[in-house]
Amino acid sequence: MAKYSYELKKKIVDQYLNGNGGFAALTKQYSVPYTVVRRWVHTYTNIGEDGLKSHKKGRKPKPGPPPMNKDQNEMYLSTEN
Q: Which residues, given as ranges, of the chain have pLDDT below 50?
């Protein structure tokens, strides 16, 4: 889960862009680090709203083994006993 909601990010960025506070004022008001607010504004101006939404990070899971065909499945089941 993201540390900050999309709604909070959007609210802070909108306030900054509408001239309702600078980085320092918004940092104090919402208890969010200065660099984080600055990054959100930069991301929003370059990418848009989609840049503020959470995205999965990390490696993609490895695919499992390929499915067995009928003959392989029968052989596996017969050797299992």
A: 1
Asked whether the whole model's pTM tops 0.85, one would answer no
Which residue shows structure tokens 């909070």? 8
CB burial readout 27-45, b (16+ within 10 A) else e = beebebeeebbeebbebbe
Q: Quick one: 8 exposed, middle or buried, by C-beta within 10 A (0-12, 13-18, 19+)?
A: middle
For residue 3, how many other CB atoms are within 10 A of its CB?
8
pLDDT score, position 3: 86
